[in-house]
Amino acid sequence: MKFGVVMFPGSNCDHDTYHVISKVIGQPVDFIWHRQSAVADCDAVILPGGFSYGDYLRTGAIARFSPVMGAVKEFASRGGLVMGICNGFQILCEAGLLPGALLRNKNLKFICDHVNIRVEATDTPFTNRCQRNQVLSVPIAHGDGNYFCDEQTLAELQRENRILFRYSDADGRITAEANPNGSLDNIAGICNRERNVLGMMPHPERASEQQLGSSDGRIIFYSVADTLAELAKAS
Amino acid sequence: MKAKIYVTLKPSVLDPQGKAIHHAVETIGYHGIKDVRQGKYFEVTIEDSFSPEEARAEIERMARDVLANPIIEDFRVELDSDS
Amino acid sequence: MSEPLVTTELIRSHGLTGDEYGRIVQLLGREPNYTELGIFSVMWSEHCSYKSSRVHLRRLPTTGDCVLQGPGENAGVVDIGGGLAAAFKIESHNHPSFIEPYQGAATGIGGILRDVFTMGARPLAAMNSLHFGPLSAGDDASAEERATVARNRSIMAGVVKGIGDYGNAFGVPTIGGEVRFAECYSRNPLVNAFTLGLMRTEHILYGRATGVGNPVIYVGAKTGRDGIHGATMASEEFGEEAGSKRPTVQVGDPFLEKLLLEACLEAMRAGAIVGIQDMGAAGLTSSSCEMGSRAGNGVEIDIDLVPQREAGMTPYEIMLSESQERMLIVAVKGREREVVDIFKKWELDAVVIGRVTGDDHLRVKKNGAIVADISNKALTDAAPVYDRAIKRPERGPLTEVTQVESSLEEVDATFMRIVAQPAIAAKEWVYRQYDHMVRTNTVVLPGSDAAVIRIKEKRRLLAMTLDSNARYCRVDPRAGARLVVAEACRNLVASGARPLALTNCLNFASPERPEVMWQFSEVIDGMAEACEVFGTPVTGGNVSFYNETEGRGIDPTPVIGMVGLVEESRHITTQWFKAEDRAIVLLGFTADDLGASCYALEMLGVADGRVPQLDLALERRVQEACLKIIQAGLVESAHDCSDGGLAVAIAESCFSSYRRDVIGCEVDLEGQLSAAALLFSETPSRIVLSALEGNINQILQLAREHEVAASVIGRTRGERLVINVNGERAIDHPVAEVESAWRIVLPRLLEIPSLVAAEEK
Fold first, then answer.
1. Lowest-confidence range among A16-30, B3-17, C363-377, C562-576?
2. Which positions in chain B touch C150 (Cβ < 8 Å)?
3. Can you give the pLDDT at residue B83?
4. What's the distance, CA C12 to chain centroid?
5. CB contact under 8 A, A148 and B72
């Protein structure tokens, strides 16, 4: 099994994600340069956080035109696992791999803080190690994390159980106070209909080692690794 | 030839920046301001070899594909020759 | 195109005195042309030449076992063991931040990041020291005072956003610092930015144009007309026309800077670069002549080859432009292609614009003709050095602030007011806007005495802190500087680190006033004295003079950026109590030190008084004892006692932190001193510890061995903060109540009310 971490100009959580996959999860990982037009032999692709192309137009708006995004789309359509964290989530929305958009935080400020997210669905490759309603303490760090979509899309996300993480308090209550950025329905992370593409604003790679305060986030990477291991066994 | 492109949030999308500006100007003492919506503005210079129709088509395509996100934003294009 | 004639008026408008101009003519052996005049004016400005401070800076200790590079380079470098070195520096961007807070602060961050990565180090942490005017005015304030307060708030909001937007996009964690307030910063805000980077010791690179014939390569953003005369602007006082200086404000591009970082590090590691310098203040001029001067070589530049953003720029404008995100590189001859290709990979232009020459001259050519030809030494080493007049200011005797008596009710009310002082209140509003976790190394987040970052796959960690105290320095600059150095060291020690070295940012008013030069000289002496005692050399920094508007200058504000080493992660100690039923120990003792304290200012409205008495030898013993106690694993928390005294230190130890609820305590303070002194005295050399009962004897024993006073002053328990003075209840509140009063201050003062309204709708 191999993970790939895409490097866009302006990515800045690329090394952090690489570090967690290789040193904490203990799996092989490679960087994928944004000009590559293939994801090579990777079995899971991560679009890391950062400010791709400076995010000057809209977050993720330019990155989606990178050559590598064609390959990512193709990889996803074949059922490959794709995970967008923070800026990666924004890019996946811009690229149409996930519905909706991420607007400016409601308080108009960049927010870096620990938040709690509740796991809403465990039948995905990204959350299969979690318990439903399990609360994870994972940091956020973004200026545009306010998830928005139209009513019809929201109804669809809810009906199809595609909201994977919602902002909650430490006891798992979904409250307005626990919503840091104004996201619709406290949405912190969603997946596509096929459940092989995840986008989330919180940074699980920043909550994967106890030394940094929380290791709650690594369960997401372990879930992916488990899924890949099972796929490898089955084939 | 020059094109002006205005990108604004769709009316259905909350615009906290616009709201903040609205409240601020009211506090400062401007009267009769009913609403403020903020957006982005682009000035694009186009090769002179393009006809106005070609230019408009190209700019509108660019606005739709890149400058605006149709999920949350509307856009409007003005060509210099329009005025 | 005809250039302006060099007239007396033109010379004056370039900030050069008649004597200085005479010296230029003497050095050149002729009159300078317009371009040369511009080059001299920026290089001989206070900002670039340190002409008023140099004679004094020599008195600072700059060498030590760990110092690999002291002052004089882009940043200082210290050896941190294991083959690794840390490059760090602090720099001011005060004047630009007053004119345009957002861009001024943002470009300040950009500049200090470049200073660090030009040394070959990847920036791993940033901090900043910010000083603003007051954020609130009394009910009876005049319209003018209200306007000042409104402007102070908007300056602070702009500066914080500028720092966040630049650092966050670049990808450096901003892990702490300090924010302070006083009237004198209303028109002279201070923005001092610190960055620390890490590298392998063999990767250190210098800003030197070595190797005659080597190509000089320009990389990064194109040159525009922005910031022309930024360096001279930073060397002048502001008058009424400050607003009209707006056009010289530079605009930062953190995305470009991030690409520059990656490309520069890649080219450096490939061994294709021999020297590199940021085009910061005085742009192409300072980078070329300083690199030439350090190597004893000349640099020849063909101005036509410099990438330009605007048409029709003159050599004068190109040489003096302060466009951001540009670097000058001296590469190995024959490897130009390799450098260009690496930059191309990062979508950046790299252009050969000249070469290193064997003589000592900065030679600028346009269309084959020489438009400037000046000895590098004339621009750097031969710049004027002034031993400016010094005069101790005359003033009456200090206010007596001793044996202050107040009732216990007053003491309690005072405590709640001090906790809600903006300088003491929670700084979450600030650091939540900074990404303080990117790069996943931040082990101790902002909020404790010092921030701590890990070095991946190494046992050792780095701790760092920024400290200043203009309240003390304005009364007694020498003692104040000593106190600041002591506090910086104490903050590191309380966090489990051994202090290594420091960088300083010396913010002062006009050096042309003898009273200001006296303050400067005193600060240098106090700092030197303390650095000697703690064994912490100064590896560089920055002097910012002329923090003065319409004749009103700032209080002397030396800021210290201290870096220390934590031997292993189990030594990391934070300020917060960890559990109930722990003993609270005060290391050190409390004296009657209410002069120049938060208490004196807040309660008595007295800004002077004798500053706290510091015994450097005792301070050192306290720190040694504390570090031993921490390293022996005897304590769960340690917190330096400083602003607001023991009462504030205890309260802060009780407050909640990440995944940790509030922890209450009951403390008994006893002694001959007044209740106010016992609670709020700012006696240095004190650290509040908490520990398991079973460790107390060992802690007291270690304190005795270091001849340091130590006593158990209370226990952690429950959810109330209770402090008794000589058996009587002085302070008694639920911790949550005190904490919320402390947390709400900055949001209440700084949030746009409309946001609250928008959220309610």
1. B3-17
2. none
3. 46
4. 32
5. yes
**C196-208 tens-digit pLDDT:** 999 999 999 999 9
Which residues of A fall within a CB distance of 8 Å from C432?
Answer: 109-113
Question: Which residues of chain B neighbour C758 with C-beta distances below 8 Å?
Answer: 16, 19-20, 23
Give the CATH superfamily of B2-80: Phosphoribosylformylglycinamidine synthase subunit PurS (3.30.1280.10)
> Which candidate from B12, B13, B69 shows the least CB-CB separation from A94?
B69
Amino acid at B76: R
Residue B71 with chain A: CB contacts under 8 Å: 93, 99-101, 148-150
Poorest-pLDDT segment among C5-9, C399-403, C453-457:
C399-403
Chain A contact for B12 (CB, 8 A cutoff): yes
Query: In the 3-class helix/strand/coil scheme, how is C509-548 assigned residue by residue?
Result: CCCCCHHHHHHHHHHHHHHHHHHHHHCCCEEEEEEECCCE
Per-residue pLDDT tens over the stretch C213-231: 999 999 999 998 877 765 5
Query: Considering only CA atoms, which of A83, A81, A97 is closest in space to residue A227?
Result: A81
Q: How many CB atoms lie within 10 A of CB C190?
A: 27
Contacts of C486 (CB under 8 A, 6+ apart): C530, C534, C614, C616, C619, C684, C685
- Give Cβ neighbours of residue C232 (< 8 Å, ≥ 6 apart): C14, C15, C41, C42, C45, C47
Q: Which of A34, A94, A142, A205 is catalytic?
A: A205
State ipTM.
0.97
Helix (H, G, I), strand (E, B) or coil at C625: helix
Bridge partner list, C548:
C553
Place of tokens 């390799």: C338
Q: Alpha-carbon distance C506 to C528, whole Å?
A: 13
Mean pLDDT of the region A52-69: 94
Share of chain C above pLDDT 70, in %: 96
Residues of C designated as active site: 47, 93
Distance from CA of C273 to the nearest CA of A (A): 23
* pLDDT tens digits, one per residue of B32-42: 999 999 999 99
- Put simply, the answer to whether A104 touches B17 (Cβ < 8 Å) is yes
AA letter at A79:
G
List, in order, residues 6 or more apart from C553 with CB less than 8 Å away: C184, C188, C508, C509, C510, C513, C516, C547
Q: Is B29 left (phi over 0), alpha (psi -120 to 50) or beta?
A: left
For A109, what's the count of Cα atoms within 13 Å in the CB-facing half-sphere?
A: 25
Q: How far apart are CA A175 and CA A166, in angstroms?
A: 10
Q: How far is CA C548 from CA C81, C98, C144, C311, C551, in A?
A: 43, 11, 19, 36, 6
Question: Taking the complete model, does pTM exceed 0.90, yes or no?
Answer: yes
Give the nearest partner residue to A106 out of B12, B13, B16, using CB atoms.
Answer: B16
Q: Does domain A3-234 have CATH number 3.40.50.880?
A: yes
Characterize the bridge pairing of strands A135-142 and A111-119: antiparallel
Backbone angles phi, psi at C351, to 5 degrees: -130, 130
A-proximal residues of B, 13-42, CB under 8 Å: 13-14, 16-17, 20
Domain ranges, ordered by start, for chain A: 3-234
Is-catalytic flag, A19? no
> Residues B45-74: pLDDT tens digits?
999 999 999 999 999 999 999 999 989 999
C261/C124 Cα distance (integer angstroms)? 12
Q: CB within 8 A of C407, min separation 6: which ones? A: none
Q: Is the pLDDT of residue A183 over 50?
A: yes
Percent of chain C with pLDDT over 90: 86
Ordered alpha helix ranges (H), C215-335: 230-233, 254-269, 283-295, 315-320
- Please tell me the distance in Å from B42's CA to the nearest CA on chain A: 10
Q: For C519-540, what is each residue's pLDDT tens digit? A: 999 999 999 999 999 999 999 9
